[in-house]
Amino acid sequence: MIRKLCNVFEVLLFFWTTGCLFSQRVDALQTINDNTGDSSVGSSFFFYQQSNYPRDCREVQEQCSSHNSTGVFMIKPDSYLEPFEVYCDNAESSAGWTVIQRRIDGAIDFSRDWNSYKSGFGFLSQEFWLGNEKISYLTNQKKYQLVIEMTSSNGSLIRVSYDNSRISDEFSNFKLFSLGHFSGRTDVITLCPYNMVYINCSNSCQRTSGAPEMCQDGVCNKAEDCVCSDGYFMKGSNCVPQKQCGCYESEGQTVIPEGGSYVNPGCTRKGVCTNGQITWDEEYACSPNAVCDVRDNIRQCYCTGGYRGDGENCTRPPRDCQEIYEDGSEDNDIYRIKPTGWTGEAFEVYCNMTDGGGWTVFQRRVDGTEDFYLGWDSYKNGFGELDHEFWLGNDKLSNLTNQKRYEIRIDLVHSDGTPYYAKFDNFRINDESDKYRLSQLGTYSGTADSRSNPDGYALRYHLNYQFTTKDSDNDAYSNNCAVYYHGAWWYNSCEYSNLNGNYHAGQGSYTSPYWNYLPGSDYNLKYSEMKIRPFPQVV
After folding, report:
1. Largest CA distance in the chain
2. How many whole angstroms separate alpha carbon 73 and alpha carbon 84?
3. CA 317/CA 351 separation, integer angstroms
4. Which band of pLDDT confidence, cut at 50, 70 and 90, is reported for residue 31?
5. CB atoms near residue 295 (< 10 Å)
6. Rg of the Cα trace of the chain?
7. I need a labelling partner for 415 at 20 to 30 A (CA). Which of 22, 147, 178, 442 fits?
């Protein structure tokens, strides 16, 4: 099958055959006088002399020299019940072409159903389709040649030919059964992709999935080009039906993807695109704890103040990573929480969901890229990157550990790759008015202490001591332990643990991050992570 795609065009399909039958159609107008036979007066009428009808236009042309003109004639193919009219093209020297289709100016709608194409439609002298049933009878009585002529808007004539064309009957759905050998030029024929037609762009209205209600300029690359058929829209480089475009919302001049939603300005209603149609929820409204906003190019209700929900319903935000874990989130990632008593907005934390899940991480050191030798305000507010090295902030840590009973887990990795951990089942620090004092630790368990010091002494030594930084000396030593050990910690008298020390101090240095009484060396820790979660036995 060849798809012809031109702007202003004529398509002529001809059948030609050899052989001859002596049958004719004679049209005569005679004027007869009822009484005298005088031809000058009387009534007029048509009559036919018809021994046998010609079977096609070639037989019309051969049977009588008076039928060499182009026009409408009556034929009757073998076995066809009644004769019917066809348009015969006798303009060429060979003549005898039975025209089965013609398109000139689009005056006739060719988007029709099965029965229309079976019976035929249009006007033989203008645009028409002869009818599949007639074509089937024609092409099955002998060998026929099919010629397709196409004329583009610039006057170029395209002609192709097949020497043995035949279509089957309706039982076989008028299948194109045979074409034979092809001749002609295909390099001048424009073949458009599926669901596209070749037309004059100046007379077309091309629409895209991005704006189905608007004609788009600059869609064509030249005067005549392939564009989407009626009912199809350009989506990328393809033509798709409107259903695949989604739903066009005229108020916001936007396209809602299938299954997607659109919220109007003011967030007073919400539409969902289903099967190319928008279903509106007129009762859509923001929660008192939400605002109507546009974020990441999406307008909708967004919960505020650390609340969580879909914007229509906003509930209290999670208080820690344990509540996030209980809500079903099991990925190690950054989340937002708001502890009880926290007066500011919800803040981000890193949640570690291993070892039973629900751990809120407040310190991590990995490679020394973050400087931990900082002052009081930095440790109060927090610093670093939550997905790498950081200190969460003593204000946040104090709020967290005072809303319920928390256990702490400290994971350590020695420079030789050996992992250790320490747990205490009741960890708490006081607020800034008490210099973030380490006020609770509870019972120790883990692998980070040697047998000679099994009680987590490296941290317990600092229990009930305040936090010290290089610019705020609150330790028991005569000098500032943070300056002396190049860190910041709940120092008693500087000894036994210093996880915020100088990462690059070098092997054996007392200023490096260390945890005394490790089964191996005390120094040269290459990794530490400190995290808390509610103690399981206490709600």
Report:
1. 153
2. 8
3. 15
4. very low
5. 8
6. 45
7. 442
Question: What are the DSSP calls for 346-406, one per residue?
Answer: -EEEEEE--TTS-EEEEEEESSS-S-----HHHHHH-EE-TTSSEE--HHHHHHHHTSS-E
pLDDT of residue 155: 63
Give the span between the Cα atoms of 179 and 167, in whole angstroms: 9
Least confident of 17-31, 38-52, 190-204, 428-442: 17-31
With pLDDT > 90 as the criterion, what percentage of the chain qualifies? 50
Query: Which pair of structure tokens corresponds to residue 369?
Result: 């890229």
Question: What is this structure's pTM?
Answer: 0.49
Tell me whether strands 406-414 and 157-162 are parallel, antiparallel or unpaired: unpaired
Residues near 36 by beta carbon (within 8 Å), at least 6 away in sequence: none
Distance from C-alpha of 516 to C-alpha of 508, rounded to nearest angstrom: 12
Lookup: tokens for 255: 């396209």
- Phi–psi pair at 328, nearest 5 degrees: 110, 0
Terminal CA-CA length for the chain = 76
Distance CA 391, CA 397 (A): 10
Residues with Cβ < 8 Å from 332, sequence gap 6 or more? 350, 351, 352, 353, 354
- Going from the C-alpha of 7 to that of each of 69, 79, 150, 202, 240, the distances in angstroms are 29, 39, 10, 10, 22
| Three-class DSSP category at 426 | strand
Q: Which two tokens stand for residue 177?
A: 């059964």
Encode pLDDT of 156-170 as tens digits.
678 889 999 999 999
Residue type, 376: W
The per-residue b/e assignment along 361-384, b for 16 or more CB within 10 angstroms, e otherwise, is bbbbbeeeebebbbebebbbebbb
Q: Got the DSSP string for 198-232?
A: EEEGGG----BTTBTTSPPTT--SSSEEEEEPTTE
Q: Which two tokens stand for residue 216?
A: 């788009």
Mean pLDDT of 318-323: 93
Contact (Cβ atoms closer than 8 angstroms) between residue 52 and residue 20? no
Q: Give the least confident one: 208-212, 332-336, 347-351.
A: 208-212
Q: Is 480 helix (H, G, I), strand (E, B) or coil?
A: coil
In angstroms, the CA 330 to CA 295 distance is 26
Write out the two tokens for 192.
Answer: 């458009």
The values of phi and psi at residue 241, to 5°, are: -65, 160
Amino acid at 320: D
Q: Alpha carbon of 368 to those of 389, 495, 506: distances in Å?
A: 8, 22, 12
Structure tokens at 134: 């007639």
| 3-class state of residue 13 by DSSP | strand
d(CA 57, CA 273): 56
Q: For position 2, what pLDDT does the model report?
A: 33
